[in-house]
Fold this sequence. Notes:
Shape: globular
Largest sheet: 6 strands, antiparallel
Number of domains: 1
Structural class: alpha+beta
Order of helices and strands: EHEEEHEE
Strand content: 25-35%
Mean pLDDT: 87
Amino acid sequence: MKSSQKPPAAQGADTEVTVELSGCEARDAHAVFAALRTVFASDRAPDDRPEEVPGARPTVWSSTFDVSEVGEKPGPTPLTRPVTADVQGGYWAVARLQEGLAGAFAVEVLGTAAGDQEQEAQLRLDMRRA
Length: 130
């Protein structure tokens, strides 16, 4: 079974994935969230752009995506530098989100933490090379 196909036993499973971005510029955060909104429904409006927050503390941008339905596949998306994304959701949902990201970025899994019903994964997103 492809990870894009929801397993029959998981029909009632959570289809939402939380994505947190930090340590990157606001325009890169916007590029990642915009690419994801092309593929999946989001809790943020399309015109909701991440903004830098002045101060010494790091800024974390967060959005939740419903991966139950797939929209358009995004094309390669430019970044000023690689972005680290921390994602959390059900196993199927996290895998589906990674598939959606792969249309826009080169995706590398840096690490995962497994729970009973959920998975956390740290992903490194970089520009896709043709």
